[in-house]
Amino acid sequence: xxxxxxVVYTGENDARLRELxxxxxxxxxxxxxxxxxxxxxxxxxxxxxMKNIGVIMQKNYHSLMDHLGSGKEWDLHGKNxxxxxxxxxxxxENVGLYPGLLDALRSNxxxxxxxxxxxxxxxxxxxxxxxxxxxxxxxxxxxxxxxxLMYTKDPTMKRxxxxxxxxxxxxxxxxxxxxxxxxxxYDNTYMQVFVIKRELLIELVDKAVxxxxxxxxxxxxxxxxxxxxxxINAYEYKGKCWQIDSVQSYFSFSMEILDPKLRKGLFRxxxxxxxxxxxxxxxxxxxQAVAINSLMADGCQIEGTVENSILFRGVKxxxxxxxxxxxxxxxxxxxxxxxxxxCILDKQAIIKRNARLIGPSAYPIVIGKDVVI
Amino acid sequence: MLRKKTCVAMLLAGGQGxxxxxxxxxxxKPAVPYGGKYRIIDFPLSNCTNSGIDTVGVLxxxxxLELNSYIGSGAPWDLDISNGGxxxxxxxxxxxxxxxxRGTANAIYQNxxxxxxxxxxxxxxxxxxxxxxxxxxxxxxxxIRHGADATIAVRPVPWEEASRFxxxxxxxxxxxxxxxxxxxxxKSNKASxxxxxxxxxxxxxxxxxxxxxxxxxxxxxxxxxxxxxxxKQVMMAYNFTGYWKDVGTIESLWEANxxxxxxxxxIDMHDxxxxxxxxxxxxPPHFIAKGATVSDTLITEGCEVYGNVNHxxxxxxxxxxxxxxxxxxxxxxxxxxxxxxVVRRAIVAERAVVxxxxxxxxxxxxIAVIGQGITVPAGASVPAGQQVDESYTx
Lengths: 373, 394
What we know:
The complex is a heterodimer. Chain A is an alpha/beta fold.
């Protein structure tokens, strides 16, 4: 796999994640108690043998850069290749904000040209999966395709008005692509992950941008399928995946991984997930603590009741506090006598003594970073 | 040429720690797990990093494999730097001789070349036997301020126990006037912690002389320190009053773990300015299932609890199955306590399995120990104080 590189694009639309993405990209969203969305993608790439990984940044990328650092946690700090953080910058042809993936790739043309690997895996960053990407690349090579798209048949991945759907024939070739249909016709959701030859990608991007185009799906992939000018096939990802594109989908993903069976699909012994380490001590449960069906990271101090919830690192739950169906990010606190249900507390949020906050399960309350209630 | 260092640390990690019984059968004592996610050596290494000492030699000899792979590049302690860092120093063959480390002083003597590379002014000698947080830089400043040739860290011990320790008798200015190993009638209660700072020039002289003395047992406590005192060198006692725990026996290792469950904790592990770093196994958060009960317990990443746990410490990846009962115990990484098993006042070492319905330990008496990788068969029982390894017949 030495000859494969990875590129992650982190510029997805995040409006439906409300306050949670004010200060961070979706890729930097804290998930599963001690991870960020991007940890799963970068770890999959590293586990798949990729040693040159570029992360294209767009908005609010400070949090993401801070998290990735030198790439040490993913063993990406070597002399050759390693992690490349690609922030937007102002040049003659780039004004900072990318209208689409094509523009983002075009402005990082030099990085793509300088890279040595023959094959490239490109992934968006708003779908969480933990895949054997080496199997995807082997499929691509074995079938002599020009481009291989990765897709899933998971019905929970379908979204009206969002997403890209593909038709696949018996031999695995892509025969049609639907981009953001109001009602998708096909059950195959394209996971925004594909394999391509690096030089072919450079060529396609250059041509498309020169013709004023922005969308990879509509302006490149769909056209190639319609013209039949390239062999585009598809690889089915059979594992579990989750799209993080709204507060609701973030919340339901979090509640689902409380199920040990679904969690095993995400955390697999053969595919470890790496993240930035915080060196907290183990979590402490007091004499009165009650914990039911919950995931807790290190450094928590639990004296009250925690039910169907996820606590990130360093969270404090005081005696007689009750937390139900909640996600509490790093260093959050729930003080004595408080009751919260269906809430998402961003980092360092504090719920003071005896406060009561109950959100509807279909539309959880989001408490912003550093907010005190 | 490497850049000069003010102070280089040498960590003596070669001892077997035989008083830890089967826990150190396959690993060196400094690599023994402690406190849910640490190993004993994380404490001196983190103290070095937090004290600004970035060059550490770790002298290994006994069962070094696990310790070597744990230390790796030194990255968890920020000791993976180009000028300095952490180095594992096993004994090696030299042109004229090749031999094991004969004593603590001989171990340093054999690594004089390592120390000389950095041309240090001072050398800090540490051991990998204790749980404590200490600012070595403050001790170094004390050493420099007093123009000392050697400074020995001491801590007050109860008078009635003083005859079990190496005791430093000092004058009113904290200058050491006499050193007594396990005195019958102690004149002071200042016990040596095995943490020394030497002015390198002096230590070099005494190490060389000690090596030439064929009758010497090449030990800091027995030879180097008494010799320096006889020669009226400036020897200072540095008083340390923080938490300090020897974890040299099964009982003291168990007690030191249980100390972390005290409220307030006698050693502040939440201090963000003085973190204890450890290699991270990269596991998901721990999971507490419906029907499980957990109280007065420390739990870390990768654990899954379906049963009942009280007053215990669970290391990474431990699984407590439904109906299992764990009480006042230390369960080390990757071990599984199966359905209906009962574990009381016990240490279960790494990757052990206590099968369904088995009973380990008792409510009173000594601590029971299950060795690394051992499976306690279903329904078996292990009495208090029993150590179980491959040779044990159930």
